[in-house]
Amino acid sequence: MSKTRATITALGVYFPEKRVTNLDMAKVVNTSDEWIRERTGIVERRMIQAGQSNSDLSAKAIEDALRDRKVDPSELDLIIVATVTPDMMFPSTACIIQEKIGARKAWGFDLSGACSGFLYALATGAQFIQNNLYKKVLIVGTDVMSSILNFEDRTTCILFGDGAGAVLLEPSTEDNLGILDFILRSDGAGGKFLYMPGGGSLHPASHETVDKKMHYVHQDGRNVFKFAVKWMSEACEELLRRNGLTSEDVSLYVPHQANLRIINSSVERLKLPPERVVINIDRYANTTAATIPSGLTEAYRCGRLKKGSLVLMASFGAGFTWGSMLLRWGLEPKKP
Ligand code: UT7
What pLDDT, on the 0 to 100 scale, is given for residue 133? Predict the structure, then answer.
């Protein structure tokens, strides 16, 4: 009997309406449009308005995905939310979303994998399908990075944006379509290069933690950059090699969007032409767990994917966490 594969059957995305350009950022910190474009590839990002939260963005992305597939939320078995910016420490954002969208039957949990959160969650959710336990697993990659940015630190606040992407996993009805393989890794020694120290059990919120700006993203950009370039490419190469594939077989490469220079370095190493690479960092900046599902959704809706296309996804982020995933696209092309 052939193995049940998990395949993506619906996709959705939501970015908040408020656009924040590089010029807007230059009014807040000592930076310039030129520096941000040249060093990162970012032109603008989206940010929530007061009163909006992670679960609001997620619910909109989920509704967008389920509407396309005509699936009712009450049919969902499981919701996995990849995020580092939940609505609150607990209950989980998955529980808040479950109630918001009316997914009465589903249980769910949040998964903290930073920029690799979406791939971690996709691999986790796929297990429930492959083991024939569930038929409909919803994966959300979502972050409100503006809620943890220090708008006095020009080295981090210009890099991130807010957004959410959602995909539905179902059993594939055809052999060899769906998730083929993945490599997921972490190395806790990298934790010191990208972290948010305040608010957890080690440094609970206090006047002191607030005064010391411990509730914000702290990053040693150069070190993160160095490891991202190496490990994202290596995870792709290793995954292709062990599946007897080369980059020539890849129809679409969907890398995490942290810095255009990191993306380009992996693209050069994989020798991929630009038409086979998804880039949206210019419009949305780094939305952490949302970059890959939002990029995938846009690519599908622009007609860049057809049934049978080989998709390669790759990520690198805080932890360090990183990974790559191969999937054989199972949906008919969406007409632009
Ligand atoms: O998704 C999570 C994973 N995160 C990443 O993958 C991020 C990885 N790192 C990066 O993308 C890059 O390291 C950054 C974009 C964060 C920084 O770029 P860089 O080319 O590594 O710059 P740098 O840190 O080496 O700084 C170069 C100069 C410094 O000035 P001096 O010391 O040469 O005088 C910085 O102070 O650029 C300065 N600088 C800025 N100047 C204008 C840093 N940030 C800014 C800024 N505007 N926003």
Answer: 97
Report CA(139)–ligand 1 centroid distance (Å): 32
User: 262 CB under 6 A from ligand 1?
Assistant: yes
Q: Which runs of consecutive H residues, i.e. helices, occur in 70-181?
A: 93-101, 117-130, 154-157
pLDDT at 1: 55
3 state SS of 18: strand
> Dihedral of CA 226/37/319/207: which sign?
positive
Nearest to 85 by CA among 135, 13, 34, 144: 144
In the chain, which residues have pLDDT < 50? none
CATH of domain 178-328: 3.40.47.10
What number of residues does the chain have? 336
The predicted model scores a pTM of: 0.97
Could you give the CA distance from residue 129 to residue 254 in angstroms, rounded to a whole number?
23
285 SS3 class: coil
Question: In sequence order, what are the beta bridge partners of 262?
Answer: none
Domains 6-171 and 178-328 share a fold: yes
Q: Does ligand 1 lie within 6 Å of residue 217's CB atom? A: no
For the domain with range 6-171, which CATH number is right: 3.30.70.1230, 3.30.450.40, 3.40.50.2300, 3.40.47.10? 3.40.47.10
Is the backbone of residue 129 left (phi > 0), alpha (psi -120 to 50) or beta? alpha
- Taking the CA of residue 154 as reference, the ligand 1 atom at the shortest distance is 48
Catalytic residues: 115, 256, 286
CA 189 to centroid of ligand 1, rounded, Å: 21
CB atoms within 10 A of CB 152: 12
Residue 91: which residues within 8 A CB-CB, separation 6 or more? none
> Which pLDDT score is estimated for 175?
85
User: Quick one: pLDDT at residue 286?
Assistant: 98
- Alpha-carbon gap, residue 45 to 145, rounded angstroms: 11
Contact between 280 and 295 under an 8 Å Cβ cutoff? The reply is yes
